[in-house]
Write a structure and sequence with these properties.
mainly alpha, two-stranded antiparallel sheet
Length: 293
């Protein structure tokens, strides 16, 4: 087969284009830090990358939901802890007011303090998290309790819920506390104590004391349950964080280049390209020489 000058030219051009393309590929990798820029560069890597990115996004949605749930449980605990403090102080006042040495005016002074604690407890019962009432069950936009100075009114018939948040695939966690089972008994006990003190009724004060102690047990039980949920969620989030790191590591190994290797490949490609250019130049010059001769 006779090698023509045109074939020599074409061969040189093909080698130069291939060399330049390879060099540009490694230059893009070294600059971007990514193995591919377009799916057509490597369809297998592109598909794997899409799958992993979807998995990372889905997993992150669970993590974000879990962290919101963690915040909600923290607000629950703060509110319940405040109720515990309010009830403990009320029990102290009830014990003091039950004494036979106190007169009607002194008990009325204690009643004023309990009235303030009752108003505070109503405020606790109307605690919100991100604009939603935490003790209203599903009626998150309805204020559950109000106090007009004489009586406490509940505005939500059922506050049980349950409100369950999905924190990982197939695993949900209840994040609400039943207000009518926990808060309402506290409000009733405080109201009863205040009225008993105002009435200067030692027997009624004793009954209110028992109600306060029962309400305190209920709040402490709810706080214990909320704490157990918090620990369960913390364990789940720790596990989810590890999975998240693993997924992101897999995504990085799929998409990202080894920079040291990319730079080495680029340097090698540049060397090869220079050699190709020099070889092509000699080949073309020789062909022209032969032609002129």
């Amino acid at each position: 087969m006779r090698i023509t000058t045109q074939m020599t030219y074409q061969h040189a051009i093909d080698r130069m284009q291939a060399s330049a393309s390879q060099m540009e590929k490694y230059r893009r990798q070294a600059t971007s830090g990514k193995k591919i820029e377009n799916p057509s560069d490597d369809p297998h890597v592109a598909v794997r990358s899409i799958q992993l990115r979807s998995a990372v996004a889905t997993h992150q949605a669970y993590v974000d939901s879990g962290k919101v749930s963690q915040e909600r449980l923290g607000v629950n605990d703060s509110a319940l802890a405040d109720l515990v403090s309010t009830l403990n102080r009320s029990i102290q006042v009830a014990l003091q007011g039950r004494g036979d040495t106190l007169g009607a005016s002194e008990r009325q002074g204690l009643a004023d303090e309990i009235n303030g604690l009752l108003e505070h407890a109503v405020g606790i019962g109307n605690t919100t998290f991100r604009g939603a009432y935490i003790f209203s069950g599903f009626a998150i936009n309805t204020e559950p309790y109000s106090f007009n100075g004489a009586a406490v009114t509940s505005h939500v018939a059922s506050t049980a819920g349950p409100i369950n948040n999905l924190i990982e695939p197939g695993h949900s966690l209840q994040v609400n506390v039943d207000g009518n089972a926990v808060v309402r008994p506290t409000l009733d006990a405080l109201l009863g104590l205040r009225d008993a003190l105002n009435a200067d009724d030692g027997t009624a004060i004793g009954s209110s004391l028992a109600q306060l102690q029962s309400a305190l047990e209920g709040v402490n039980a709810a706080r214990t349950t909320n704490g157990a949920r918090t620990r369960e969620l913390t364990t789940t989030l720790d596990r989810m964080d590890k999975i998240s790191l693993s997924l992101k590591s897999l995504l990085s190994s799929t998409e990202d280049v080894d920079m040291a290797e990319a730079i080495m490949n680029l340097q090698h490609a540049e060397t090869v390209n220079q050699a190709v250019l020099q070889t092509a130049a000699k080949s073309v010059s020789q062909s022209l020489f032969d032609f002129l001769r």
